[in-house]
Amino acid sequence: MSSNPSEEKNPQPGSLQAMLARLRGMVQALKSSEPGQAQQPEFMPTWDGPTAAPGQTIPGSEAGPPVDETPREASAAEAQTPAVEPASTSEQASSDASKADIPVAEELPVPPPTLQLCPYCHARRKTEHVYCDECGWIFPTVEATPAAAPPVPQNRIKDRFLLGDKISERGGVTRFRGLDFGSGHGEPASVVVLRAPRMPSSEMAPAAEPVTQAEPAPVPEQAATASDEGVDLRQTLVWIPALTAAAAAARPAWPSIAWEHSLLERAAHTALPRIVDHFSEGDFEYLVEEVPAGQALWDAWDDPQVSAEQRFRWLKQIAGALHRLHQCGAILEGLRPDIVTVSGGEYACLTDLADLLPLPLPPDPPIRATHYTAPELVLSSHQADARSDLYSFGAMLYALHMGRELTELDFELQGVPKSIYERFPDIHPLFGRLVSKTFCRDLAKRFPTEEAAKEDGTGFAELIRTLETCRRTLDHVRLDIAAWTTTGMVRTGNEDAFALLHATESSENTLGDSALVLLADGMGGYEAGEVAAALAIQAMRKYLLQQKPFAAVAGEATPLPDEKHLAEFVPPPDRAAYKQLLAAALKEANKAVYMAAHGVEARRGMGCTAEAVYVHARDLIVGHVGDSRTYHLQAGNLVQLTRDQTWVNRMVEMGAMSVEEAELHPRRSELHQAIGGYPDVEPALYEATLKPGDWVVVCSDGLSNHIDDGTLLEILLNGKAAESVARRLVNLANHEEATDNATVVVIRAT
Hints:
- This protein has 750 residues and is an alpha+beta fold.
- The protein has five domains: 9-48 and 89-100, no CATH class; 112-143, no CATH class; 150-200 and 269-291, Phosphorylase Kinase, domain 1 (2-Layer Sandwich); 302-475, Orthogonal Bundle (Transferase(Phosphotransferase), domain 1), CATH 1.10.510; 481-560 and 572-749, Phosphatase 2c, domain 1, CATH 3.60.40.10.
- Helix content is 27%, strand content 19%.
- It contains 19 helices and 22 strands.
- A hairpin with a 2-residue loop joins strand 16 and strand 17 (619-625).
- Helix 1 (16-33) crosses helix 3 (89-97), helix 7 (308-327) packs antiparallel against helix 12 and helix 13 (526-545) packs antiparallel against helix 14 (575-597).
- The longest helix has 23 residues, at 575-597.
- The radius of gyration is 41 Å and the shape is elongated.
- The model is unreliable at 1-15, 36-108, 205-243 and 562-570 (pLDDT under 50).
């Protein structure tokens, strides 16, 4: 056989190609013998013609070069073999007649290569370039078609499970996607089916080698001798106790179905797959694992309605599952977003355990070596331990933040990721530290820190605490606040009053801003209106600062949970309690103004509007009486949270008057509820959730009467800082010949 696959091979006499060639020659001979038809020579390709014996000619080959007829001695075998007489013309004609209508395959034109455009800049891809020449986009790699897998039985195994596509194979254990038709639901449930050849009980795989009890962590004086590649990596952590020799000896060998079945039973974590069934049928052993229904982590993470509190709860669940695997003697080589499913928006679960490896690692373990694989697993697997999962966990965080899979462009060198601080200088410092303490090449720079290593050498206990801190605080917005007031262009004095209390406090990695905004717009004449507004602010401030939830803005130290208890569930702020306190404060203000108005003859009829706004973490709570306003801008949508408590606005809500008519109506400033007007008042209460990039505007009607919603939206969208926006709003009101006092408090959430 020739070693060159492209070398041409002539068919031997009697082969199928030779037979077809003779048939075509006979068909041509018949056509040329018909009346009125000129004989046309038949040209056959050399690779499709029979080999001619000396002294013979091949039909249709008369026009070719002469055949060498040099006599030679026949071998003994040839002498004993009778000569084959050539078929007669009539036999050829009759034989070829049945083949006359056989269509001959035509050579199809080669289709031109498909034009591929860059999905980012739409530039044309040149030949097989990996990167776009215009913008640097990395074109996805087209993987070669894998070799045909062994046939998968289409009939159900155990009359219940149907095997689907093959996922992976390692050490004889093959994973398939499958369907469970016996789940008790109407539709079949998705499962993962593990299949391995069934071994007789007498040939069961031996258990893993016994592992002796780990020695205590060496101190520097007792440090082991440095390895060939430098200091032994084992010196950089305090080891967790290994399995006892008896326990290790009892474990099934890896890789095997029995090993994974035993691991999942011992781990028993909610973020790990649940075992559906374990059985043998025919020549195979099967293990069926549940695949929970839900969203892939990629999609759930990118949902704009999902909060950081939810995202980091999912991460805590995954970290807890990995920590449990470590305690049971296993690690997961490559944690990726695509192997995590989020069910119901609440629970995260690993769905693919194909990359499980035993601890301690066997010599030369099979490593897939993806961008999510810790470099020590590839370069020095004998020094790898549970901290290798920290690397893949950080790689997953990095990918989720980037919004795409990791590529070579995300690394300085193999296993050396680019610093997240250099790529995202303004990233949240807590998240930046989380990534930097996990997704790094140097084992000593990962979790745990020196003190935490005394508790847990794997670093996962400290990781889980850090995730809990992120869960509680990353949704908290930082506040940029400014406030301005003006007498206006007509009034002599300013009857508006406001108080702004802004506090920032941090303790044990918990950093938060709080702000209390109190605004009152007086009425009843210059002296009376000014007094009413001042009394209302004083009464609300005094009442609220005596309440424990407002201790931060009161200047008192707020006790924060110790990091030792961060793993416990901390309920979100109680908005209902805040609302009740703001409503009570407004009632106190109403009582104070009402009593003052009825105590001195000169101040009868005085009153004011009032806004009590509290911002904490991501909560915006508003108490409202009168026609001052609170606006909230989020994602380009400006919403007036409060509703004017005026006579004309009530007519508009009832459909008796249009908005345009209300703006020009002579009774447009007539209030149906105000602070001090009656012995009691019923404040309106509102709430909203703040996100970074939001704006909050609290203002008196002296501003809102001169600046419409469209103008306010434009100013906020173009604003860079609260101070400049507040000044611009007040100046614009004066530019519009402000006929009343105008006050504004602007809050920008970052």
